[in-house]
């Protein structure tokens, strides 16, 4: 076994690898860029070597620097994590030359799978399903009909240069092909100057399902079940789970065996993943097709660890050291269900705008890698522990940097059933406190609660289909809303009681009323606070909370459910209560003042579509328009620099610039109106 | 006797109705509460004790003798906010448009005189069309009587004005002389002459809102200290604000019990200062992580954002916080920020509120607009205010403290009691680059030499130790221990005694 391993990566995955090394008694070396000098993985490793400037191309992607660091520290092997150099065959070869072991597959396999066309060919040869389609361009409608029938409907007729909906036509039957083929050709010619048309099987209700492979150098190749990663946004995975709600034991076996066959065909060892696209419309489960093979550890590997109990990092290391896998395919079972959500520094309420910056507060529901406690209780290395695992590489007071992936942490839950794992996600997300950058915790919670997610009817279009107008917070039902009203009244009441303790009073503390009126989103609730609960609009709710003035995160229960809440005093009057994927803003006044509340005029929120609002604090570096200019949708209006990154703000609709309220060089606050349109 | 009781009830009822249901409805339709309703929100339940309910005006001109309304357009008295005594007046727009008559003014004066005698703050809720024109000069005299009392009360009892409707003409000068002004967004405005007069005289076309609305006064003019969404939110904010203030200059700062540990450690502050000296960071984070429960009431948050002023508590006791804000104009001192902070420091000093100052200041803002605008005189205000203040003063330099601005920001030399510096502090005459370009002017065209000398200058001065070696910094502290250091310091300084030489009054450069 190695005595020292260098981790050629950063962030959570570096922490993750270091933790397993520690458990195995292997010394670790971190490499870091300027931007990561203060990062936790640097502190966690036994040694750390600085390898360059913040941009990855000047540090984490420099193979020479990493090899130099190995020599300098005497590291015998390199774990590449994911991304960066993890799938560079040349890096593996360079390490080989120096006699340093690469903890991953052989260079040949990386090279073979790294080429899109080559890998498809190899897959086909190994007997892996690939998406059926015409090899060559098709000339006539007759030919198109013949091929379409061979492939089986529905099919997609695609102009060679087509894409983004242009030069693409879906056909469900012969008639569609007859009517559409020539048109597709013409579209291709007119739009792209190329009338070649190909036909390919159209995958209905596409799902992204992948098979985890683990193989040793002795020729044992196993599949560690599947993961489903269909919940994606712009091809970025957001939620992953294992097993998949769509996969039957037969389908698992078929997919697994094909993946194993492919791995063996390329002489694969270590951990790897075969990604498949699956038609959700074909309930037989036979319509799965090869997409690509990732020759590295995946971001979402923890869900596989959770259901199999196999520490993938440990076995990557052992395989690299030449050990044989001690288990056989039959030993790999599925224990329960695991879900991973990715907490990103992006703001779902503002169209998922990246929102990097300083973590002013960071408190995960359980300590992550960067927390104080060790690996105990993490399913995957330590079977039978708690059901929540946080993989992180950040800390309170740290920075989510623009130079790298804006992921803050991965939250992994395990439960005996899919619903249990999802329920645990909801609970854990409620208790996940992140302040500073915007984050997608509410959005993740909303997905976890979404009836369609719960039904398992997933497709890669899930987010686009369910949130076509963007995200406004998770759905909330009447009983929960009433509970929120009671909690806000309770908070105002405890603050009033606390304020009544001030020194210098004429007499005793003023009495605190039990009758309140709470206004949330234009709705009014009558709340009477009582012992162990409250009456809201005449209906008794049993519930309590341990929230006290000065707290943010607290436990609450009501309507028979336990919730973590985050309750903040937003202004002197307004409370913001976040729970279950939604932030409720409310005001509470003693009931005696209720009639007065009715006189307050609900102010029309300004028509934001007629304004350009600064989405983040930053510097206005450029105004692209002047007063009186007519603009078209998508036209750049202003450029705001925030955290050294330039963000171009564009017109949402057609209009004329009626006024400009800021000048180039101004420091802008978030929500400041830069200009107005009419 | 019973006849008198009946008469009392009748008159009370009449007073409660103010200008009558129709006018009350009109007030409500504008989203505004009546004078008495506002006091219901502002004061503790049932605590309001009205005075002068039966006062009526004595005007006999222009048919006024037939129009007598009990209370004469202002509701006055006293009550409590979280149990603490406060004197109040609340102008009633439903009665003669809240206009100020001689008797109306006398009622306000009576409340102020009593507040001065007993040592309790005055909160005025302003909603008045202006002078009672029918009374002519008697009304003007009334204003002046109020003004005189505002001035005498200044520095003796806190005075807060809440503008909840029109406040125009001479009427603006009473709030202007109080300590703090809050406004209600969209329904209040203040100006000396309204849009119509402005148009006649200068031909400028301007709306009420542009001329004197809440946005104008909280961003541009700094006349108002903050503005809130509506009457209720404004009054709730005023209640919260009141809890920070002592009752008078004879009373200690109030104490609010707190569960927040006095020695709470904030490790995250150790990484607040970016590696790059030119990169900004949000000073609010230092403030909220230092104060009890992160509770901070900021004054003028939308004006001169390069300096932050406001109240918070440490170990339950009020402190005034002044801090440079690197996020806005790099935290530079300019005319507006100097004026804003100077007035705040003087308020704290007048009422024995300790001042905690966080410093990250690159200097004074250069430029013709500043020089011609009188930065010399205005910058001197802040210098003067800090220098004359005798309250406990604790200063923490987080990063830059350059040039004259270092002196100004509650430095040791201005009788700072405890002057701390984070290890990232740089106390110097100016930034290294600028300094080297002056000292080594002859080598200006030799970039290598300049770079070398810049490095030399940085090594020498870009740290707190040179200043500390001279005793200008009392101790270099870990950022994570900032709250503990400040809490301990404030405890130890409770017995501080310091007074300035006797004088009639000083002559601050106004």
Automatic annotation (TrEMBL), chain A:
Gene3D superfamilies, A to Z: 2.40.50.100, 3.30.700.30, ATP-grasp fold, B domain (3.30.470.20)
Domain ATP-grasp: 120-321
SUPFAM superfamilies (alphabetical): Glutathione synthetase ATP-binding domain-like, PreATP-grasp domain, Rudiment single hybrid motif, Single hybrid motif
InterPro entries, A to Z: ATP-grasp, BC-like_N, Biotin_BS, Biotin_carboxylase_complex, Biotin_carboxylation_dom, Biotin_COase_C, Biotin_lipoyl, CPAse_ATP-bd
Enzyme category, top tier: ligase
Span of domain Lipoyl-binding: 603-678
Alphabetized UniProt keyword annotations: ATP-binding, Biotin, Ligase, Lipid degradation, Lipid metabolism, Magnesium, Manganese, Metal-binding, Nucleotide-binding
UniProt superkingdom: Bacteria
EC number: 6.4.1.3
Limits of the Biotin carboxylation domain: 1-468
Reactions performed catalytically: propanoyl-CoA + hydrogencarbonate + ATP = (S)-methylmalonyl-CoA + ADP + phosphate + H(+)
Pathway: Metabolic intermediate metabolism; propanoyl-CoA degradation; succinyl-CoA from propanoyl-CoA: step 1/3
Cofactor(s) for this UniProt protein: biotin
Name used for this protein in its record: propionyl-CoA carboxylase
Organism expressing this protein natively: Alteriqipengyuania abyssalis
From TrEMBL, chain B:
Record-linked Pfam families: Carboxyl_trans (PF01039)
This protein's name: Acyl-CoA carboxylase subunit beta
Record domain CoA carboxyltransferase C-terminal: where: 261-504
Domain of life: Bacteria
Residue ranges of every copy of the CoA carboxyltransferase N-terminal domain listed in the record: 1-257
Segments of this protein annotated with the region Disordered: 1-29
Alphabetized InterPro entries for the sequence: AccD/PCCB, AcCoA_carboxyl_beta, ClpP/crotonase-like_dom_sf, COA_CT_C, COA_CT_N
């Amino acid at each position: 076994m190695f005595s020292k391993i260098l981790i050629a990566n950063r962030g959570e995955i570096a922490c993750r690898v270091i933790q397993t090394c520690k458990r195995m008694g292997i010394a670790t070396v971190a490499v870091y860029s300027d931007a990561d000098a203060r990062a936790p993985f640097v502190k966690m490793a036994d040694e750390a070597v600085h390898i360059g400037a913040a941009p990855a191309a000047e540090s984490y992607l420099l193979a020479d620097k990493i090899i130099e660091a190995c020599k300098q520290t005497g590291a015998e092997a390199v774990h590449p994590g994911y991304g960066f150099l993890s799938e560079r065959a040349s890096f593996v070869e360079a390490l080989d030359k120096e006699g340093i072991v690469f903890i991953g597959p052989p260079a040949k396999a990386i090279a073979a799978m790294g080429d899109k066309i080559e890998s498809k060919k190899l897959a086909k040869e190994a007997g892996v399903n690939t998406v059926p389609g015409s090899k060559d361009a098709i000339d006539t409608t007759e030919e198109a009909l013949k091929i379409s029938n061979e492939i089986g409907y529905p099919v997609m007729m695609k102009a060679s240069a087509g894409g983004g909906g242009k030069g693409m036509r879906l056909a469900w039957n012969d008639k569609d092909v007859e009517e559409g083929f020539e048109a597709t050709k013409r579209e291709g010619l007119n739009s792209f100057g190329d009338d070649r048309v190909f036909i390919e099987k159209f995958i209905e209700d596409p799902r992204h399902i992948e098979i985890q492979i683990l193989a040793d150098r002795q020729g044992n190749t196993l599949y560690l079940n599947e993961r489903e990663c269909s919940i994606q946004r712009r091809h970025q995975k957001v939620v992953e789970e294992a097993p998949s709600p769509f996969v039957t034991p037969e389908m698992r076996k078929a997919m697994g065996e094909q993946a194993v066959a492919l791995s063996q065909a390329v002489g694969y060892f270590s951990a790897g993943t075969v990604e498949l696209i699956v038609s959700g419309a074909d309930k037989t489960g036979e319509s799965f097709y090869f997409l690509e093979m990732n020759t590295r550890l995946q971001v979402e590997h923890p869900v596989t660890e959770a259901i199999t109990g196999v520490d993938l990092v440990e076995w990557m290391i052992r395989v690299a050291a030449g050990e044989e896998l001690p288990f056989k395919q039959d030993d790999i079972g599925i224990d329960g269900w695991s879900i991973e959500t990715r907490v990103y520094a992006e703001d779902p309420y503002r169209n998922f705008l990246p929102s990097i910056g300083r973590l002013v507060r960071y408190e995960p529901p359980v300590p992550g890698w960067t927390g104080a406690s060790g690996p105990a209780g993490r399913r995957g290395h330590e079977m039978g522990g708690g059901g929540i695992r946080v993989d992180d590489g950040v800390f309170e007071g740290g920075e989510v940097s623009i130079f790298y992936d804006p992921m803050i942490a991965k939250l992994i839950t395990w439960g005996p059933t899919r619903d249990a794992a999802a329920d645990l996600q909801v609970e854990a997300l409620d208790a996940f406190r992140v302040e500073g950058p915007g984050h997608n915790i509410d959005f993740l919670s909303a997905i976890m609660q979404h009836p369609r997610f719960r039904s398992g009817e997933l497709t890669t279009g899930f987010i686009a289909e369910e949130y076509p107008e963007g995200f406004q917070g998770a759905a909330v039902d009447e009983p929960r809303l009433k509970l929120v009203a009671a909690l806000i009244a309770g908070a105002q009441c405890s603050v009033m009681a606390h304020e009544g303790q001030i020194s210098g009073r004429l007499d005793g503390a003023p009495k605190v009323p039990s009758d309140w009126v709470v206004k949330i989103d234009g709705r009014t609730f009558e709340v009477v606070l009582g012992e162990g609960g409250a009456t809201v609009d005449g209906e008794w709710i049993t519930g309590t909370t341990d929230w006290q003035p000065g707290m943010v995160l607290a436990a609450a229960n009501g309507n028979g459910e336990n919730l973590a809440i985050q309750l903040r005093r937003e202004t002197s009057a307004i409370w913001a209560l976040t729970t279950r994927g939604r932030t409720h803003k409310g005001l509470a006044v003693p009931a005696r003042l209720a009639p007065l509340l009715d006189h307050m005029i609900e102010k029309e929120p300004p028509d934001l579509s007629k304004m350009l609002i600064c989405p983040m604090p930053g510097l206005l570096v450029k105004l692209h328009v002047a007063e009186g200019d007519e603009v078209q949708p998508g036209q750049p209006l202003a450029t705001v620099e925030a955290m050294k990154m330039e963000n171009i703000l564009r017109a949402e609709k057609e209009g004329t610039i009626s006024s400009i309220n800021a000048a180039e060089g101004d420091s802008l606050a978030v929500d400041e109106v830069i200009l107005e349109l009419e | 006797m019973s006849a008198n009781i009946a008469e009392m009830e009748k008159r009370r009822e009449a007073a409660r109705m103010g200008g009558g249901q129709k006018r009350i409805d009109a007030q409500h339709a504008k989203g505004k509460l009546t004078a008495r309703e506002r006091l219901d929100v502002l004061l503790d339940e049932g605590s309001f004790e009205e005075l002068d309910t039966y006062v009526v005006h004595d005007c006999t001109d222009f048919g006024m003798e037939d129009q007598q309304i009990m209370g004469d357009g202002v509701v006055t008295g006293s009550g409590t906010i979280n149990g603490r005594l406060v004197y109040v007046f609340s102008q009633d727009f439903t009665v003669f448009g809240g206009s100020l008559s001689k008797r109306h003014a006398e009622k306000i004066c009576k409340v102020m005189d009593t507040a001065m005698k007993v040592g309790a703050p005055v909160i005025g809720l302003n909603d008045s069309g202006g002078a009672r024109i029918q009374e002519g000069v008697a009304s003007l005299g009334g204003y002046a009587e109020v003004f005189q009392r505002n001035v005498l009360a200044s520095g003796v009892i806190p005075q807060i004005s809440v503008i909840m409707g029109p406040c125009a003409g001479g009427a603006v000068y009473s709030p202007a002389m109080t300590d703090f002004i809050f406004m209600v967004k969209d329904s209040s405005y203040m100006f000396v002459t309204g849009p119509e007069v402005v148009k006649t005289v200068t031909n400028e076309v301007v709306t009420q809102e542009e001329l004197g609305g809440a946005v104008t006064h909280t961003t541009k003019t700094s006349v108002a200290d903050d503005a809130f969404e509506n009457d209720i939110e404004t009054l709730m904010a005023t209640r919260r604000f009141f809890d920070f203030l002592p009752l008078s200059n004879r009373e200690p700062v109030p104490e609010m019990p707190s569960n927040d540990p006095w020695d709470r450690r904030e490790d995250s502050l150790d990484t607040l200062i970016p590696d790059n000296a030119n990169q900004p960071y949000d000073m609010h984070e230092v403030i909220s992580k230092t104060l009890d429960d992160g509770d901070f009431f900021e004054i003028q948050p939308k004006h001169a954002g390069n300096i932050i002023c406001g109240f918070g508590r440490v170990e339950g006791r009020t402190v005034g916080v002044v801090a440079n804000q690197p996020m806005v104009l790099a935290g530079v001192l300019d005319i507006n920020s100097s004026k804003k902070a100077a007035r705040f420091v003087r308020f704290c000093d007048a009422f024995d509120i300790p001042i905690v100052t966080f410093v990250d200041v690159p200097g004074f803002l250069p430029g013709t607009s500043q020089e011609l605008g009188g930065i010399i005189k205005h910058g001197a205000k802040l210098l003067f205010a800090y220098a004359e203040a005798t309250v406990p003063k604790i200063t923490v330099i987080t990063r830059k403290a350059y040039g004259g601005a270092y002196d100004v920001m509650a430095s040791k030399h201005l009788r700072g009691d405890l002057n701390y510096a984070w290890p990232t502090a740089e106390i110097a005459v100016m930034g290294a680059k600028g300094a080297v370009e002056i000292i080594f002017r002859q080598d200006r065209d030799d970039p290598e030499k300049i770079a070398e000398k810049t490095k030399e200058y940085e090594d020498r001065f870009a740290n707190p130790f040179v200043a500390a070696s001279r005793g200008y910094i009392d101790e270099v502290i870990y950022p994570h221990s900032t709250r503990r250091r400040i809490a301990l310091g404030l405890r130890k300084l409770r017995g501080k005694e310091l007074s300035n030489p006797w004088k009639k009054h000083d002559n601050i450069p106004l």
